C-alpha cells in the first residue's frame, strides 16, 4: 500500500530549478531510500514533504490525504514524523523532556488550560512520560533520561532525535542523513535501529549518502538527479542502472563501491 | 509649484540628506559589527556623542587646530570602540545572543555615565568646521556645515569601500563575515578583526558626531535617539549590507524630514518607526538585504 | 487526548522502571511541588514582613517591587522560556496604566473594570503587534519591539488632550474592595503582593505543563519544535499576548496606586529595565524574576543617593554581572540555599547545560 506519494513536485528558487516535476511513492511498512548526488534536490524535496517549503506545483499525499504545503507542526499528528540532518536537539532540556516534546502534536492542551492546571494535565504528563521512556528505551538511552541533551555525545544525540520522532507512534519517519558523522560501529548500530523501526511497522523514508547503509536496509531506492527522479527500484537494480552510475560518476562521487 | 513650495521642498530635502548622512554612518557601524559578531551594538550612538565631546575638548579646551583635532578624535573614539569589544564582550562568559546584546546596552549606560562625569550634563557648543556663512541653493538656506556633513560622509563611505575592496585586511574581514569558520581555517585571525570592526564602528560614530553636533547640540546623551535611528536605518536597508546601510540612512533621513515638514512634526518619530515596522512586516530582510535568515 | 505509543503492541519492551520512577525522574512534578513550598514560604514571609517595616518609604519600595515582579513574571515566560526578546514591554505596561487612568478618571468607569478592559485592549494590541513581529528573529525583533515602544511613548506625550501630555495624567482613583480602599502604601502592599503572588501560580502551572516544555523547545530550536508538532508561530504569539497582559495588569495597579501616570515611566528605558530584571535574576526561573525585580528596584533606590552617578554605577554593576554571571543570580542563590540547608545535590539537568543552547539556532558567530 502506498503511504507517501509525491507527484510532479516543482520548486524554483529565483530561477534555479531545485525540483523539476519529481515524483515517487513510498510503501507503508517499508524502508524507501532517497539518494542522489549533492545538489540533486533531496533537501528541497524533504522540505516540501515536511511543510518547510511550499512547492510551486505538484502535490504530496500522505495516507490518502493531500498534505501539500501543510504546516509542519500538523504532520506528526497525521503520522508523519521526521529527523533533521542538523539534529535540532533541545540542548537545554533533558533527554526525557526532548522525547516528551515529540508527543506535542498528540496532546490536546492549550495555554489557558495549562495555566489553570485543569484536571487531566497531570495524567497527560504521566502518560507522556511513560511513552517517552519507552521510546528512549528503544534508542538505548533510557538509562540517561535525566541528562542534558546538549551535553550528549553526537552519536547519542542522533539516536535521541530518532526516539523523539518515534515517540508519537508515526506511520512513517523521514530520516535525514541519520548516519552522517557517525563512526562505522555507530553506523552499524543505527542501521539496526532503522530495521527495528520497520519491524515495528513504521515506514522509513531514508535520505542518506552512506551507500552501504542504503544497500543494507532499503526495500526500495529512489534516485534523484538535477531535481528529477532518474531511477526507482530495488537496491540491486538501481545500483546497476547505467543512468544512475553515470549521474554519480559525473558528480564525482563514488557509488556502490562498498555496497 | 509656487516658489514657496519649492523652497520648502528644497529645505526639507537638504535637511533630510544631512541627518540621513549621519544615519548612514551609524548604520554602517551597526552593519560592521553585525557582520563581525551577529549582534546589535547599542554603544553605536554613544560613539557619536563621544566623537562630539572629544572634538570639543581637543578644539576648545586644548586649542588644537581642526586638522589635527579631527583625525585625533577619530582615532581616540576608534580606540574606545576597540575597548568596548576587548573589555566588555571578549571576556563574556556566555555566547548567548541576548546576553551579548545586553552587554552592549550596559556598556552604553556606562559610557553615558562616564561622559556625563567627564563633560557634565549641560549642552556644549561645538563650533562648525568652517565659519558659518549661510547661502541659498534652489531656495533652501544652506550652511557650509551641511555640505561638510554630506561631503565627509561620502569620503568616509568611499574610504570604507576602498578598504574592503583593496586591502588584504578588508578582504579578510569580508571573508570572516561570510564564513568565520572557513576564514579561521584559512589563517584569518577572526578575533583581531572583530576588534578592528569595533574600532571602525567607533570611527564612523565619531565622524557622525563631529559633523552633526555643531548643527544639533552637543551633550552626553545626544547619541541616544540618533543611535536608535541609525539602527532603524540599518534594519531598513537590510542589516549587514553596506549599500543597504547607506541607502537606508539616506531614505530614513529624507522620510523623517518630509514627514516632519509635510505631515506632523510632533509625531515624526511615530512616522519613522512606524515606517520601519511596516517595512519589517512586508519585507523582513530590509529593502536591500537578501535574507533575514541569520539576523 | 491520546498518547500513542502507550497502546498495546506498539512497544516491545516495557519501560524498565516506570514504577518508582518519580525518584528517577525528578524533572517530573517535584519541581512544581518544590515551587509551591517556596511560594508558601514567600507568602508567609511577605505577610509577616509588615511587622518589621517602619517607614512608609519601605512599603513604597516593596510595592514597586511587587508591580515590577508581575511584569517580569510575564516577560520571563516570553524571554526565559520561549526565548523571544521584547524591548517593548514598557509600552504594554503604559497602555495598562493609561487605559486604567483614562477609563476610570475621564469616563468614570469602575477601577477594576477599567483594569480588565485595559488588559483586554492590550491583549488585542499585543496580538496585532505580535503576529507580524514574532516572525522576525534576533536583531529585527529587537528593533520592531523597540520601535513599537518608541511609538507608544511619543503618542503618550503628544496626544495630550487625552493623556495629559508630558506632565502626566493625575487624579486616578485608587482600587477598593468592599469599601476598603487601597490608597495608602500599607494597604496597597497587601493588594500588590496578593496579585503578584497569585499571578505566579498560573505562570508556574504553565511552566510545568506540556506547553511550557514546548516553549522551551522553541527557545532551543524552532524547526525542531515545529517538527515535533508544536505550533510555534501560534505559541509565540500567545505567550507574547500573555506577557503583555501581565504587564498591563501591573500598569493598571501602578496607575491606581500612585494616582498619577507620566510617560517617562513607560519609555524604552523602562523596557530595558524590565529585561534587565529578567536577565539579572536569571532567565527561565520564576524565582530569578523575583530576585531580579527585588535587586533592580532596591538597588537604584540605594543609588538614588548618588543621583549624579546613577548611570555610571548602574552601568558598571550591570556590565560586570552580565559578563561574569550571564545566568543571573538565581543559580548562585540556589547553591547558597542548598549549602545552607545542607541538602544533597539532586540529579537532573544541571543548569550549567542551559548554555548548551548556544550551539542552537541563536548561535552567535565567533
What does this structure look like?
The complex is a heterotrimer of chains A (259), B (295) and C (366). Chain A is α/β, with parallel strands linked by helices. Chain A is 36% helix and 24% strand. In chain A, the strands form 2 sheets. Chain A has a 6-stranded mixed sheet with strand order 6-7-8-3-9-10, with helices on both faces. Chain A is globular and about 60 Å long. The two termini of chain A are 28 Å apart. Chain B is mostly helical. Chain B has one domain: ABC transporter involved in vitamin B12 uptake, BtuC. Chain B has 11 helices and 2 strands, in the order ααααββααααααα. Chain B has helices at 3-37, 44-61, 66-89, 97-119, 144-166, 168-178, 180-185, 190-212, 223-237, 242-263, 268-282, and strands spanning 135-137, 140-142. In chain B, strand 1 (135-137) and strand 2 form a beta hairpin. In chain B, helix 1 (3-37) crosses helix 9 (223-237). The radius of gyration of chain B is 19 Å and the shape is globular. By secondary structure, chain C is mainly alpha-helical. Chain C has one domain: ABC transporter involved in vitamin B12 uptake, BtuC (Orthogonal Bundle). Chain C is built from 15 helices and 4 strands. Chain C has helices at 21-24, 30-52, 56-81, 89-106, 111-133, 138-158, 160-163, 185-207, 210-220, 222-227, 232-258, 268-281, 286-303, 310-324, 330-341, and strands at residues 169-170, 176-177, 180-181, 260-261. In chain C, the strands form 2 sheets. A two-stranded antiparallel sheet of chain C has the order 1-4. Chain C has a two-stranded antiparallel ribbon with strand order 2-3. In chain C, helix 3 (56-81) packs across helix 12 (268-281) and helix 4 packs across helix 11 (232-258). Mean pLDDT of chain C is 83; it is low at 1-28 and 343-366. Classes of the chains: A alpha/beta (259), B mainly alpha (295), C mainly alpha (366). Chains A and C meet through helix 2, helix 3, helix 4, helix 5 and helix 6 of A and helix 8, helix 9, helix 10 and helix 11 of C.
In short:
The complex is a heterotrimer of chains A (259), B (295) and C (366). Chain A has 259 residues and is an alpha/beta fold.
Percent of residues in helices of chain A: 25-40%
Under the CATH scheme, the architecture of chain B is Orthogonal Bundle
Give the beta-strand count of chain B. Answer: 2
Rounded to the nearest angstrom, the distance between the terminal CA atoms of chain A is: 28 Å
Count the DSSP helices of chain B: 11
Low-confidence stretches of chain B: 291-295
Strand arrangement within the widest β-sheet of chain B reads 1-2
Unreliably modeled segments of chain A = none
Rg estimate of chain A, integer Å: 19 Å
| Rounded average pLDDT of chain B | 89
User: If interface size is counted as residues with C-beta under 8 Å from the partner's C-beta, which chains form the largest one?
Assistant: A-C, 70 and 62 residues
- How large a portion of the residues of chain A is in β-strands, by DSSP E? 15-25%
At the first level of CATH, the class of chain B is Mainly Alpha
- Classification by helices and strands of chain B: mainly alpha
Named CATH topology of chain B: ABC transporter involved in vitamin B12 uptake, BtuC
Instruction: Tell me the overall shape of chain B.
Output: globular
DSSP helix fraction of chain B: over 70%
Radius of gyration of chain B: 19 Å
Query: H/E order of the elements of chain A?
Result: EEEHEEHEHHHHEHEHEEHH
- Output the helix-strand order of chain B: HHHHEEHHHHHHH
The number of helical elements of chain A comes to 10
